[in-house]
Q: What sequence folds into this?
């Protein structure tokens, strides 16, 4: 088992390794004592994994309640959020109790926000079951639901008290969803670690999952420790994401987040090369790594079509857009780019 300790406004451990999910009862007991537990999952994850988690907790003497919602991004909305808050109130949870978000990114974001809001904050444990949630969304405290105007527009920073990353959960993950997570893994290689990039660039990484997840979480931890509230360096984690959000929106969310990130990374690496904004060409390497991990590298949407969506992004502020550009594999930088210049680059 690997332990990565996050030192943000709250200090907490991310435990990574096969079987760490079984530590849930003893960790809850040592962190919070004798508390009640609300398990939150979508219907897909509930069918596969909720009984096991609940039985573990009940066998250790914990009183549990479950809140299960329909899977998919469409559930990450204020209505489901308030249903969860009403559930916590109906079941008479207190702020000393713990909410366990067992699932992918939607569950972590929704559960994390509910834990922050309920009685101004109850304890939170994240148990990610998708690769994307393990390497990205379960760590770092970003929580949110979507509004009609866009994704993640209503949220808060709420660091969890514990994250349990068990790669065994990934054996039930559909291949499409595994690939989505690989887009974020490739991203970490491009922005911060050439050795990680080399480890994953040929695909077939299932025998090294603990090592790879640990490296990604460590990179994310280092960024979050330095810039928890996303006012500077944390923007680097958004490499490929500005165009990705536009691609997701333009496709009415038929292109998944991971696939949109893959395409967004290629488009931005191409721009960096075309405009002399990188030290070494890296587009071809990124494209090969993505292809080898069953990810797309392009879309029919033209850059100019994506531009309108880009300017709606909440990260587009003060007449400029922060573009995250690769210098070379393993190093990237943020460049505040005036909107007019960005439009010229994208046209
Ligand atoms: N997913 C990007 C971040 O946590 O900042």
A:
């Amino acid at each position: 088992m690997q332990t990565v300790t996050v030192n943000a406004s709250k200090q907490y451990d991310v435990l990574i390794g096969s079987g760490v999910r079984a530590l849930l009862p003893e960790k809850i007991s040592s962190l919070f004592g004798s508390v009640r537990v609300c398990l939150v999952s979508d219907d897909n994850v509930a069918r596969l994994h909720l009984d096991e988690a609940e039985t573990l907790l009940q066998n250790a003497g914990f009183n549990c309640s479950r809140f299960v919602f329909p899977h998919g991004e469409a559930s990450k909305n204020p209505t489901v959020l308030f249903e969860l808050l009403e559930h916590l109130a109906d079941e008479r949870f207190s702020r000393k109790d713990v909410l366990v978000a067992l699932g992918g990114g939607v569950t972590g974001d929704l559960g994390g926000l509910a834990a922050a809001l309920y009685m101004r904050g109850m304890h939170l444990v994240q148990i990610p079951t998708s690769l994307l949630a393990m390497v990205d969304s379960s760590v770092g405290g970003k929580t949110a639901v979507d509004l009609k105007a866009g994704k993640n527009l209503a949220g808060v920073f709420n660091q969890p008290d514990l994250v349990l990353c068990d790669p065994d959960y990934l054996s039930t993950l559909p291949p499409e969803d595994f690939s989505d997570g690989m887009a974020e893994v490739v991203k970490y290689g491009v922005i911060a670690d050439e050795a990680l990039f080399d480890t994953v660039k040929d695909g077939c990484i299932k025998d090294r999952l603990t090592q790879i997840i640990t490296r990604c979480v460590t990179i994310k931890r280092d960024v979050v420790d330095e810039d928890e509230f996303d006012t500077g360096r944390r923007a680097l984690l958004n490499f490929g994401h500005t165009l990705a959000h536009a691609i997701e929106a333009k496709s009415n969310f038929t292109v998944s987040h991971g696939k949109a990130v893959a395409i967004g990374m290629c488009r931005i690496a191409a721009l960096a090369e075309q405009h002399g904004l990188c030290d070494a060409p890296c587009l071809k390497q990124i494209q090969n790594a993505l292809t080898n991990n069953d990810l797309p590298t392009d879309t029919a949407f033209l850059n100019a079509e994506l531009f309108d969506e880009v300017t709606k992004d909440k990260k587009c502020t003060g007449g400029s857009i922060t573009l995250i550009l690769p210098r070379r594999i393993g190093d990237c930088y943020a460049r505040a780019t005036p909107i007019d210049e960005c439009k010229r680059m994208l046209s």
